[in-house]
Design brief:
With about 70 residues, the chain is an alpha+beta fold. Helix content is about 45%, strand content about 25%. The protein has a three-stranded antiparallel sheet.
Length: about 70
């Protein structure tokens, strides 16, 4: 996993209520296109859920970390 993906995942995991994708890219200091690619990879890898969300008529996505099973080892 790239450092940027790891940073994004840690940021999303730190917010149990979720984080808006439209805010995530600003908080990470990357452009929106790069953030979209990071989010897509995290979603495809099963780390996050991406839920359609509208705020003031503008569509964005609410990103929430999935609960991962704990490995007993």
């Amino acid at each position: 996993m790239s450092d940027e993906m790891e940073s994004a995942l840690e940021h999303i995991q730190s917010k149990p209520e979720g984080v808006l994708q439209s805010e995530l890219w600003k908080e990470l200091g990357v452009d929106s296109r790069k953030c979209s690619r990071i989010v897509k990879r995290l979603e495809e890898s099963g780390f996050i859920d991406r839920i359609e969300f509208k705020r003031e008529g503008i569509k964005t996505y609410l990103l929430k970390a999935k609960q991962m099973p704990v490995n007993p080892d």
